Amino acid sequence: MAELVVVGFDNPTDADRVLTELTRMQKEYLIDLEDAVIAIRSQDGAVRIKQSVNMLSLGAATGGLRGAMWGSLIGLLFLNPLAGFAIGGAVGAGSGALSGNMIDYGINDDFIKSIGDTLKPDTSALFLLVRKSQPEKVLAELSGYKGHVIRSSLSPEQEAKLQAALERTHPPSPSEGVEAAGTMTAQPS
Question: Domain 3-52+124-186 falls in which CATH fold?
């Protein structure tokens, strides 16, 4: 069973940075994500949702391939497989795009919108549906992103470990600028 985790961040770019890091970890088989979505609330209060799985293009591609295959087979019956391939591919791509647009994969869109509406302006949230992971290694990589757990289906112990990892300090990234580096060096050890 997959675990749902929603982590909020105090700026609009951290959710993207964490998702990029998680994608890298997925390539290293440290985490297996079923779905990941980013909600960003802009200064004017509008919520923008970025899906990690584009169902429209996925539906069009698979529909096009299925339509081309079936069109070719039907075209063979009428001794014109090339026309069947072209017509079947076009019809399949159109119907696949339509069905892909209507499918809600992974995390429920209404849930994402309801949490997104609660975000403060100029913040972001990362919604994760995690199939499995190597918790110690993932938490070590995510330490210091200054996020807070908004909602999760994790056990209280696992949620506390995640929150502790997110609160640990880390050296500033290039996107945080030279000012942050200056304040880090000015602090006494």
Answer: Alpha-Beta Plaits (3.30.70)
